[in-house]
Amino acid sequence: AYSHSSLVKDARIERIAHIKRKIAELMIELDSFDGRANLLNKVRLEQTMLREYLILQCQDISGGDDSIGVCGICRKSLPSIMLIAAHVKPRAKCTHEERADIDNIAMLQCVTCDALFENGLITIQYDGTVVVSRLETVTQDLNGIYSVVEGSITSYVNGNNNRLSYLKYHWANVFRGTVLDSEKVTQIQVTNTLIH
What we know:
The chain is α+β, with helices and mostly antiparallel strands. Helix content is 46%, strand content 15%. It has seven helices and eight strands; from the N terminus they run αααβββαβαββααββ. A two-stranded antiparallel sheet has the order 1-2. The protein has a two-stranded antiparallel sheet with strand order 3-4. It has a two-stranded antiparallel ribbon with strand order 5-6. Strand 1 and strand 2 form a beta hairpin. The longest helix is centred in the first third of the chain and has 28 residues.
């Protein structure tokens, strides 16, 4: 006989598998789709499903409540509506295979950390350490946000080569600062154009 917790776990695993299949189907549809309005709706649906998938994957951290998730950068536990399935390599720059790599291409981020990450103000080093850019104007309020995330360790870096590849893309094309790439320091050029 199954215990209640076993039934809940089986239902969660089944839901995860279902979401993964639906995301794959949506990606195939998105790749061949022409209409802009419907495309935007499909992308939003993909974002919603990917966020739910990531939240379900990290339920052990959030206590099993699928309406709550944890930001992969600042580690704050937040309602799911305040979290984003943030692509480490910008979605628009991903191949179909990279977009389909849903276990590695994205991580949960709160809206603040997503804005910082997407605009190149923070990144994650090869060892999982969050670093900030000091090359832009840093206001007192931004410095306060930086103090929460700078130096924190994210679980995104787990030895997976795809994840490291996506981070390397972020370092070279999005981040506006300096990152440690293995044993050496790589200076990333500041550009005026951001990739979204």
